[in-house]
Amino acid sequence: MTALDARPDTTTTLRFPTGFRWGTATAAYQIEGAAAEDGRTPSIWDTFSRTPGKVRNGDTGDIAADHYHRMREDVALMRRLGVTDYRFSIAWPRVQPTGRGPAVQKGLDFYRRLVDELRDAGIRPVATLYHWDLPQELEDAGGWPQRETAQRFGEYAGIMAQALGDRVATWTTLNEPWCAAFLGYGNGVHAPGRTSPAASLRAAHHFNLAHGWAAQVLRTELPSAAEISLTLNLHAVRAHTDSPDDLDAARRIDAVGNRIFLDPVFRGRLPEDLVRDTAQVTDWSFVLDGDLEVAASPIDSLGINYYSPTVVAAGSSESPSPWAGAEQHVRFLPAPGPRTAMDWPVDADGLHELLIRLRDDLPGVPLVITENGAAYDDYADPSGEVHDPERVAYLHAHLSAVHRAIGEGADVRGYFLWSLLDNFEWAYGYSKRFGIVHVDFATQRRTFKDSAHWYAEVIARGGLT
Q: Which Pfam families is this protein grouped with (predicted)?
């Protein structure tokens, strides 16, 4: 990646640098549907969503936003928005149903058609290899706590690079491995629903290893100009007070929430304090010679997903907890201020804090906001319009925070709004709406919300008023 042309111009509007990438994002299981078509087999989310009590209202992603059949309509929506980039994920079980062996051509063909449609619309495709939909057969063999899953992921990366490498210039290996490891294997609120602190730490390491192996394969298979990235949901951790105990609580969460990925990927090492904190959970013997060098395979940018800050104090957390090694030492406190429909605090300063931290900790690493957005209780009024002023305010505040960080030297290259469409929101099913395009799930009718019109104006203007 090359540096953007200039610092933002603040003379009239909050203008972003020339070449700034304006995008939106989705995930395969959340929008595609067609869960059993053209050779696709179950992922862990298909299994999890069919397990009674795991997903609100018993919702599944069987149909979701029916993007598999309405892809061209959705690309046309993006063209109307004027986005320069679209970040989508590839469903591993759609292209390699068992996680092993040859690809299913019909699955590959869907993504070829999507990418070609995007390119014809003048939209740059940004592919994510893993957004949580592990083939169920690999989970049955042990899942991410097993080293073999990371090896299989490297092979899958090679399949996709060969299929789409001539069409896609930007590749993200993993999306939010923290959620996949600690919500999936730690407290079980995400698929596959296991509750084992030791398994969650093994999974986290194997995600780092899978990322490194995939990055190496992509580097070999793709053209030299291709960009390779990783997306993390880094936690903007704040201690409740400046007391030593509260500061130590923040350190613990930073270790198991952030540095468990940042240090192996960018420094080729495990955080020493993380190893101490988790000594009663694991001895880390699953980290083999050479693993950390693999995890530190060079990448071209870091993606950041941010929604709200994390406030902690000394104490203890409910069990089962996703915070392996910190459960008996940390309690979580609500941040002040307004809240979204997810009951998440609205605090754009947390995004600014993260960007400045990364500016200082990872000099020379380009940054991209790969997810940022909010869920609100949106509905179509009698005229068919969808008014969402809270989301517009949320997005304005967070883009302002990004602009401020760029002005202070953070090398932020783009912003991908989450999400294009209302979709299947994981364990919340269809009860939460993050989209700037309203989806009537009974009819699949798409309607621009006010936030979509607003975002189109921001993109056209290249900044905020």
A: Glyco_hydro_1 (PF00232)
- The sign of the CA dihedral 429, 430, 432, 438 is positive
pTM, two decimal places: 0.97
Q: Which two tokens stand for residue 8?
A: 């933002």
What are the per-10-residue average pLDDT scores of the chain (465 residues)? 48 86 98 98 98 98 98 98 98 98 97 98 98 98 98 98 97 98 98 98 99 98 97 98 98 98 98 98 98 98 98 94 96 94 98 98 98 97 97 98 98 98 98 98 98 98 96
Q: What is the pLDDT of residue 318?
A: 87
Enter the DSSP assignment of 100: S
Distance separating alpha carbons of residues 439 and 48, to the nearest angstrom: 24
Structure tokens at 343: 């009951």
Single-letter code of the amino acid located at 89? S
CB 449 within 8 A of CB 437: yes
Q: Find out whether 71 and 449 touch, Cβ atoms under 8 Å.
A: no
Amino acid residing at 153: F
How far, in Å, CA of 295 to CA of 209, rounded? 5
Sheet holding 237-239, edge to edge: 237-239, 310-314, 330-333
- Can you say whether the dihedral through the CA atoms of 391, 396, 402, 405 is positive or negative? negative
| Inter-residue contact 303 to 368 (CB < 8 Å) | yes
Element housing 463 (H / E):
strand 463-464
CA–CA gap between residue 159 and residue 218 (Å, rounded) = 10
**Which among 391, 392, 393 is positioned nearest to 375, based on CA atoms?**
391
Which amino acid makes up residue 442? A
| Nearest residue to 143 via CA among 183, 101, 185 | 185
DSSP string, 158-209: HHHHHHHTTT--EEEEEE-HHIIIIITTTS-SSTT----HHHHHHHHHHHHH
Q: Say how far apart CA 208 and CA 214 lie, in whole Å.
A: 10
Cα separation, 162 vs 18, whole angstroms: 32
Tokens linked to 79: 């063209």
228 CB contacts (<8 Å, ≥6 apart)?
171, 173, 215, 218, 219, 222, 299, 300
The per-type count for the chain, helices as H runs and strands as E runs, is 16, 15
Residue 370: name the closest of 131, 153, 133, 80 by CA. 131
Q: Measured in whole angstroms, how far is the alpha carbon of residue 181 from the centre of its chain?
A: 13
Cα(352)–Cα(194) distance, rounded to whole angstroms?
34
Q: Name the residue among 404, 367, 415 with its Cα closest to residue 3.
A: 367
Instruction: Identify the active-site residue in 371, 408, 425, 457.
Output: 371
Is 176 among the catalytic positions?
no
Q: What angle do CA 292, 227, 289 make, to 5 degrees?
A: 10
User: So what's the pLDDT on residue 4?
Assistant: 53
Alpha-carbon gap, residue 405 to 353, rounded angstroms: 8
CA dist list (Å): 152 to 92, 141, 256, 446: 11, 12, 25, 37
